[in-house]
Write a structure and sequence with these properties.
Number of strands of chain A: 2
CATH class of the largest domain in chain A: Mainly Alpha
Structural class of chain A: mainly alpha
Largest sheet of chain A: 2 strands, antiparallel
CATH superfamily of the largest domain in chain A: Tetracycline Repressor, domain 2
Strand content of chain A: under 5%
Number of domains of chain A: 2
Oligomer: homodimer
Order of helices and strands of chain A: HHHHHHHHHEHHE
Radius of gyration of chain A: 19 Å
Chain lengths: 199, 199
DNA sequence: GCGGAACTGGGTCAGTCGTCCCAGTTCGCG
DNA sequence: CGCGAACTGGGACGACTGACCCAGTTCCGC
């Protein structure tokens, strides 16, 4: 077999684990399923990772990085009005979920698991803290860009945004009703925009 | 040991399973853990239930019954204004979550699991449909009681309410920030009340 | 009080899990 | 070229899982 470095092997295992998690869920994310997906032997897993839990921690931590959410900033930049920006950001987020529902569901499962596992509980709360930070940054960016201001602390509004996206995701995952989800996204956008006022 | 009917045994096992689910999570909800909690033998389990999955289905179905959510109607009845009613309903819901966080988390885990399991997927979507129905009924009840009307279909607003409560729950479960959750509940109430207008 | 049905406990089975060990192979460096 | 470190594959271990079987015990209706 190909002889590759530990670092590279960790990356391959990590990517394989994410694929399995999205496709089959957390309960199917066994070390054997991961190495099968990565086409490695079981021993290679424990050569690269001390334990399964360490890999799980890596996945949670990668979400904290939040490259994905940062992508939404691009959407904001293209909009002509703040109203359009918020609406398009939420619509884009919904598209993201619909494009890869398993991934989003896997992240929920992972967060739930992390909250139950003392060793990972800290990571889960950091994950949400990061969500809130990203959302707050987007809101702040929006206000300065269009010379407007928010009538409540952006930290609080950021929580509202995250709650709305979570709720939107769970709702669509449960019944896959596209039309209803789009109407909900519109209502969510409106709920946020209510707090936008002239500078 | 006590000789009891199958029906009664199912109830005892059901209650024990719910306790284990709330305390230790879905991954710890093994048949052995359940019978230990119910102080029965393993054979009694399979005498009362054909399989573990059948019991899981029962639990999901019981959520669909939604006795708990119906309790919120009482809160609405006590309020003097619709604004107060919505605010108090959401605050009460938050209290409910805080009083038994494990239960709420267990329900999330169960829903996620149901969505991944073909045999249970239907139940999960029915569960959310039921949530939406209950929320819609509450909104309708509110409008008639105070002689007001909603500016959007209550079906759509119900979805917003469910999404907000889900988001509120996940947010608090992740960081257990009471103050932030209360501010979020207030924002959520405001988001809903925006759509209330004179008759 | 007796027969048959209802119910119970203990033991067992095959399968999966995370983890580990060890004999081998391959590589980079001197 | 050779040596030691890095890396690999296969196999194994003990623990746990859901499901099941069967020999007993207890209860109810007759």
């Amino acid at each position: 077999m190909a002889r590759i470095s530990v670092a590279q092997r960790r990356e391959l295992l990590f990517a394989a684990a994410v694929r399995v998690l999205a496709r089959d869920g957390l309960s199917a994310l066994s070390t054997r399923a991961i190495v099968a997906e990565a086409e490695m032997s079981l021993a290679s897993f424990h050569y690269a990772y001390a334990s399964r839990e360490e890999l799980l921690g890596d996945i949670v931590a990668s979400v904290v990085g939040g490259e994905r959410e940062a992508g939404l900033a691009g959407v904001l930049g293209e909009a002509a009005t703040p109203e359009e920006a918020v609406r398009r950001a939420l619509a884009t987020y919904l598209d993201l979920v619909r494009a890869d529902p398993g991934r989003e569901q896997g992240m929920f499962e992972l967060t739930q698991h992390a909250l139950r596992t003392p060793a990972l509980a800290r990571l889960a709360s950091e994950q949400y803290q990061r969500y809130h930070e990203v959302a707050a940054e987007l809101l702040d960016h929006l206000a300065t860009r269009f010379d407007r201001r928010w009538d409540s602390p952006t930290a609080d509004l950021a929580r509202l945004v995250v709650a709305l996206t979570d709720g939107l995701t769970l709702s669509w995952l449960a019944d896959r009703d596209d039309a209803a989800a789009e109407r909900l996204a519109a209502l969510a956008a409106e709920a946020v925009l209510t707090h936008l006022e002239e500078a």
